[in-house]
Amino acid sequence: MAAIDQLVDELERSYLETQERLSDPAVYNDHREAAEVGRRLKDLEGPYRLARDWRSANADLEAARTDSDLRELLPELEQRLAELEEELKLALVETDPADEKDVIVEIRQGVGGDEAALWAADLFRMLSRYAERRGFRVEELSSSPNDGNGFKEVVFAVKGRGAYSVFKWEGGTHRVQRVPETESQGRIHTSTATVAVMPEAEEVEVEIDPNDLKIDVYRSTGPGGQSVNTTDSAVRVTHLPTGLVVAMQDEKSQLQNKTKALRVLRARLYELERERQRAELDSARRLQIGSGERAEKIRTYNFPENRLTDHRIKLTVHRLDQILQGDLDQFTEALAAEERRRALEQ
């Protein structure tokens, strides 16, 4: 009980101090700091309310212990206090600071040829629909269609508060088992597509030295390699220190393509730094349900059985048709709950 007492004291102190800071003119006049303190206060509001409820329930319990008329309420009050303690601990599990950010998602066809490219397109539609269902905005950044209706690669941004907290669970290899339309024998084929999900970094978070960049311009090309415009508007940006390369050709102007390429490059550099920090924190590495790396197989989508299995949490459902329309909430919530459970164990 002493530990939870200290936790509640600390929480109330933090909340009141943050409230005071927000009304400090020096903070109020600095837009960036005011936004940061405002976010911190919003994050503390839920735990602070729980702390007040815990204080009230604890006082009721103490009163019941010393008043014979209230003795019969003891079991109920003890259960309520235990529930509030559990809720408080959950509310205080440290969240990833990137959770609130917009994201950049890259989907690439994996093994399986044209069928894998079609599967990449299906995943793009599924994730776009999921984003829209959650009230986020989708912005396509670049795509490399194949000769059919699929994608060799498609890159898009999902914009809205908390986008990373929702989409981070989609990073990894998505495996599909289905009969391709071109398969005359009705045989089931297995193909894959890989998804990378990166928080979108602000310019102030990742400063890129222009001297570290090699920028090439060329004519954009369509499926099959034919030139689709007559000016050198496509841009390839190489970050020399890391060797990262981003190419953009979907916009008509060189400047627009360069701006988009730098957004993707900034997100990749930010994610590289986060991976370096995660590797240093071994305990955080063990906490992860999945690393989000492309090579890690996270889900199997089986069309003949209308089945989806998430291998990280051993969750299987038989409503693949609905999931492909963007109904992924059940998986997001189960994965987030498992992450909180593991964090609590620590």
Key phrases:
alpha+beta, 21% strand, 11 strands, 346 residues
Structure characterization notes:
The chain has helices at 2-23, 25-28, 31-66, 74-91, 113-133, 163-167, 254-280, 282-287, 320-323, 329-345, and strands at residues 103-109, 137-145, 151-159, 172-178, 189-199, 213-218, 234-239, 244-248, 297-302, 307-310, 315-317. With 346 residues, it is an alpha+beta fold. The longest helix has 36 residues, at 31-66. It is flat, with a radius of gyration of 25 Å. The mean pLDDT is 86.
Measured by DSSP, the beta-strand proportion falls in: 15-25%
Unreliable stretches: none
**What's the pLDDT, averaged over the residues?**
86
Instruction: Report the biggest beta sheet as strand number plus sense, adding barrel if it closes.
Output: 8 strands, mixed
Overall geometry? flat
Number of strands: 11
Strand order of the largest sheet: 2-3-1-5-4-9-10-11
Summing up helix and strand content along with how strands pair, one would put the structural category as: alpha+beta
Radius of gyration: 25 Å
Distance between the termini: 19 Å
Q: What pattern of helices and strands is seen along the backbone?
A: HHHHEHEEHEEEEEHHEEEHH
The number of distinct helices, counting runs of at least 4 residues, comes to 10
Helix amount, in percent?
A: 40-55%
